[in-house]
Amino acid sequence: MVTSTAATVTLTPVETPTVYGASDRPPRGDYSRGGAVHLDYTCPQDWASYTAADHDTYRRLYERQATKLSGLACDAFIAALPSLGVSDRIPRFEEVNDRLYKATRWEIVAVPGLIPEVPFFSLLADRKFPVTDWIRKPEEFDYIVEPDVFHDLFGHVPMLFDTAFADYVQRYGEGGLKAHSLGACEKLARLYWYSVEFGLIRQPDGLRAYGAGILSSVGELEHAVRGTEPYRLPLKLLRAMRTRYKIDSYQANYFVIDSFTQLFELTAPDFTPLYRALTGQPDIDAGVLLPGESSL
Ligand code: HBI
Ligand code: FE
Predict the structure, then answer these.
(1) Is 2 a member of any domain?
(2) In angstroms, how far apart are the furthest CA atoms of the chain?
(3) Among 135-149, 161-175, 203-217, which is the least confidently predicted range?
(4) How far, in Å, is the centroid of ligand 1 from the Cα of 119?
(5) Of 6, 23, 289, 290, which residue is least crowded by CB atoms under 10 Å?
(6) What percent of the chain has pLDDT over 70?
(7) From the centroid of its chain, how far is CA 128?
(8) Catalytic residue at 151?
(9) How far apart are CA 45 and CA 32, in angstroms?
C-alpha cells in the first residue's frame, strides 16, 4: 500500500515534474508522439488510433459503471452523464466540447497522461480540463493506477457541467499556480485528491459521490458511500491538507461537503496564511481520527 509521496515522473519533453500520488513506474503515455505534444502538454486526440478493442473496453466500462450509479453518485453527475454523448465507443473530444462549452465555458483537451503541475494548474485556470486520451488494456479492466480516458472522461467531465463545481476547479487551478510559487503544492494536491478525486456530498436523500476516482471505480462507489470501514469527516481545508492519501487502494477516509457552492466558497480566501499555519502542524495518516473527531 503506497501512501502519497512526491514521486517524479520522467517525461520525454524535458521537465521531470513532481506529480503527487503518481506511482514510481514510468508513465504509460507517449509524451513525444513525433512532436505532436505541445509545450503545455496538450496533444490532438488521436481518435483514429483507437482499436476496436479500445472502443469495446470503453463500452464495457461505461455499461458496467452506469448501472451502479443510482443511490451512490450525486444528482449533478447523473444528470450530466448523458452529455458525454456516445457510450458504445470512445467519444470524440470535440463532440463533448460542443456541449460542455455551452454549459459552463469549459473544454476538455487531450494529454498523453499525467502532466507536470504547472501545465496542469495552468490548463485548469484556463477552464481546460486535461483528459488522457489512451485507454487501459482489456487485462487492466478492473483497475489501473494511472488515469486513462475512462477515468478522466467518465469520472471527471460530467461534474464540469455543474456551474459551481466548474468554477471551483478553475479557482483550484489559479490557486495551484500560487501554491507552486510558495512550494505548497503537496498540501494543495491533497485538497484536489479529497474533493475532485474522492469527494462526497451530503444530499437531502443521503451521502453521494462527486469525486472522479470514486465515480469511475466499480468497487469504490459502494465502499465510499455505504462502507462501514472508512471514516467520513466534514471537509475543512487545514484538516484535508494535512491528511495523507493512498494512490492504489480504496481511501481510508473521505471528506464531505454540503454543496458545490460551499466548495467554491472554501477557496475564496488567500491560502497563504493556511500554508503558514500548516508548516507547524504534522501530517495525519489516512484512516486516523484525531481526538474529538467522529466519523459522520
Ligand atoms: N495530470 N493529466 C493529469 N491529470 C491529473 O489529474 C493530474 C495531473 N498532474 C498533476 C496532478 N493531477 C496532481 O498532482 C494535482 O493535484 C497537482
Ligand atoms: Fe482524476
Answers:
(1) no
(2) 56
(3) 135-149
(4) 9
(5) 290
(6) 92
(7) 14
(8) yes
(9) 14
The atom number, within ligand 1, closest to the CA of 192 reads 16
Residues 6+ apart with CB under 8 A from 142: 218
Domain extent at residue 218:
34-278
Burial class (CB in 10 A: 0-12, 13-18, 19+), 124: buried
Ligand in closest contact with the CA of 156: 2
Nearest to 245 by CA among 1, 3, 6: 3
pLDDT at 4 over 50: no
Tell me if 5 is assigned to some domain.
no
Pocket test for ligand 1, best of 120, 146, 174, 178 (most atoms within 8 A of CB): 120
* Catalytic one of 151, 186, 195, 220: 151
Q: How far is 90 from 110, CA to CA, in rounded Å?
A: 13
Pocket of ligand 1 (CB under 6 A): 19-21, 111, 114-115, 117, 120, 130, 132, 147, 189, 192
Q: Kindly state whether residue 136 falls inside one of the protein's structural domains.
A: yes
- Grid cell in block for residue 15: 521537465
- Give the CATH number, domain containing residue 144: 1.10.800.10
pLDDT digits (tens, 9 = 90+) for 169-214: 999 999 999 999 999 999 999 999 999 999 999 999 999 999 999 9
Task: Tell me how far the alpha carbon of residue 19 lies from the centroid of ligand 1, in angstroms.
Answer: 6
Residue owning the nearest CA to atom 5 of ligand 1: 114
Q: Is residue 187 part of a domain?
A: yes
pTM exceeds 0.85, yes or no: yes
Give the total number of structural domains in the chain: 1
b/e 236-248 (16+ beta carbons within 10 angstroms → b): ebebbbbbbbbbe
